[in-house]
Amino acid sequence: MACLIQCKSSNDEGDEQKDVEVPEGHYKNPVFIPTFADPTVIKADDGYFYAYATEDGWEYNKPAHIVPVIRSRDLVRWEFVRDAFDAKPGWKNPAFVWAPDINRVNGKYYLYYSLSLWDDPNPGIGLAVSDSPAGPFEDRGKILLSDEVGVKNSIDPFYYEEGDKKYLFWGSFRGIYGIALNADGTAVAGDKFQIAGDWMEGAYIFKRNNYYYLFGSNGHCCLGRETPYNVRIGRASSIEGPYVNQQGQSLITHEGNVILAGDPSPAVTTGFAGPGHNAEIITDDDGTDWFLYHAVDKSRPLLPNGATRRPLMIDRIDWVNDWPQIANAAPSDTAQRKPALRTE
């Protein structure tokens, strides 16, 4: 038996809202189009999952979405809600709002974000806060600038809270660093420490059993169907490291192990290239972990404005000998069983 899974999208340049036929209880990538780069996700009190993405122009000759917000009950059928911001944060101008990171902190929704341009000499990270996961988010201003912390390309924030300690991790191909935050998560409150070298960006840490797993993206994010982006992994027994790959080598001096990659060959025009910049890992009601990320659909690699089109994807994680694996180490392009989530 088959059912119809609805993909929400814009209606420009062939990106029409359409139905994709898959077997009942299954889904097929991508799960949201036309684009949803650098996703971050949280489950809110209303039972919905809310996801947020990098600023992007979805339709020709229309304003860009300043951190679009979408929501879903099952992680595979998503609907657009609104943009997180009514107006772009103004403490650094001109700049784009990239790679947000959503969290629940002190009873409110905290959205850390990057403010940067391509090849920006002094990008930074800010914070916006809302009582609702849908926003709008009120900008609280700057957390750090690259020049202030001595780390070039200070973008891609990731917040982590453990006990009474709050941390911010960040960095993009100039080393990955962490720093303690104050009690309300609004300012840095310590000295930075390094956890990985200059081979990665988009840091995300997931604790499982006795290890902290560091996921990061390697390679250029945005070269259309030739995008080489991929996801690599290491782990540590302490949140501050040292992090090592499966060969026991330091992630400061060596790269992590690849767990997800696409096919960037220009001769291949189907399937997916450039998977990366994963969101928070979500554990379903059966205890299975799910990996949300973006990738490039090689059959439709560009947005109307010429930017690389990076729709939202999801795939299952399997754990083998305390290391994460994704089937075939590649994005799935056939029907897959949905996450086990009670949605009533």
UniProtKB/TrEMBL annotation:
Alphabetized Gene3D superfamilies for the sequence: Glycosyl hydrolase domain, family 43 (2.115.10.20)
Alphabetical UniProt keywords: Glycosidase, Hydrolase
Single annotated GO MF: hydrolase activity, hydrolyzing O-glycosyl compounds
Pfam assignment, any one: Glyco_hydro_43
Pathway: Glycan metabolism; L-arabinan degradation
Catalytic-site annotation from UniProt: D38 (proton acceptor), E201 (proton donor)
Superkingdom of source: Bacteria
GO biological process: carbohydrate metabolic process
CDD domains reported for this sequence: GH43_ABN-like
Family: Belongs to the glycosyl hydrolase 43 family.
PANTHER family found in the cross-reference section: ARABINAN ENDO-1,5-ALPHA-L-ARABINOSIDASE, ARABINAN ENDO-1,5-ALPHA-L-ARABINOSIDASE A-RELATED
Protein name in UniProt: Family 43 glycosylhydrolase
UniProt lineage: Bacteria, Pseudomonadati, Bacteroidota, Cytophagia, Cytophagales
